[in-house]
Design brief:
The structure is a homodimer of 144-residue chains.
Chain A lengths: L4 H16 L7 H8 L3 H13 L3 E4 L5 E4 L8 H9 L24 H15 L4 H11 L6
Antiparallel strand pairs in A: 1-2
The structure holds a DNA duplex (30 and 30 nucleotides).
Chain lengths: 144, 144
DNA sequence: ATAAATTCTACTTGACAGATAGGAATTAAG
DNA sequence: CTTAATTCCTATCTGTCAAGTAGAATTTAT
């Protein structure tokens, strides 16, 4: 029942882009350094974000990445679903429920449905813009 | 971000006990058969519940298990925390947060705190008695 | 005594998280 | 036009853990 580093790093990566983005692309090396995350590992994560159109890449020297959309257009839920896969607590709920022959008889499904709704309710209602705002509130003295 | 079979089976096991309990102990073999779960695997799970005082065991022939408390005294959260370990989505939140040197600077913690609150809000407010009730509502025609 | 049950401990298997590694392709700058 | 900086691609590694299997010891009702 844990969010993996992949998803968490993806959120921090995009937040870093949102905070440090001017108009020039940002090299992954710099993000890795600021966030204290292996650059090689971040490569794989940002590849996912790139393919999904979450970031735009500029290749070659002085290249890097920029956000493809406005911060308020990224939900945490979207980022996590992309990197973690679906976020249902069990595989028999959600929009692609795996079929289980006990489905009809099984009362516990209701638990997982309520749980999934609660989870979605949180992560689908926090955007990168919120994170930026939270950051600005709390950290004159800190960088992320 | 999945609940493992251990936790899910524990819930079904206790629900089975709540539904089929009269005053006589129920053999694990019967639960395993009804639930379609390996008896050997259930052994290990019920051992946890037994040690925690969730069930009472009667050894020997005609032995088995009975619930130690009333169904309304078991929360799903309690069962899951016991079998799954803590249910925080990341290790840096909850009552035993692992210390992270980025803790003060890290805005994403707020996401995970909100998420954990939402998760707890659901699972700590569903009891075995609720599951029994849901079961009785929906299944004249079905067994669990 | 026997059979039915719980209890205990060890082992197996496969999958996956969390990286690391190396080189190919692209491009700005000198 | 060469160099250095960067993204892109694919393969490999390592440890951990979920999910179960296995076998034998212990307890107890009949």
């Amino acid at each position: 029942m844990k969010i993996s580093t992949k998803g968490r790093y993806a959120v921090r990566l995009l937040l870093d882009l949102a905070l440090y983005n001017t108009k020039d692309p940002i090299a992954l090396k710099d993000i890795a350094k600021r966030q204290g995350i292996s650059e090689k590992y971040l490569e794989q994560i940002i590849a996912i974000l790139n393919k999904a159109g979450y970031v735009r890449s500029i290749r070659g020297a002085q290249g890097g990445y920029v956000l493809a959309k406005n911060p308020e257009d990224y939900t945490v839920g979207g980022i996590l679903r992309l990197t973690e896969g679906d976020l249902t607590p069990v595989s028999c709920v959600g929009q692609n429920p795996s079929d289980c022959e006990r489905r009809n008889q099984c009362v516990t499904v209701r638990i997982w449905e309520k749980l999934y709704d609660a989870i979605s309710g949180v992560i689908d209602n926090i955007t990168l813009a919120d994170l930026v705002e939270w950051h600005n509130e709390t950290s004159d003295q800190y960088v992320i």
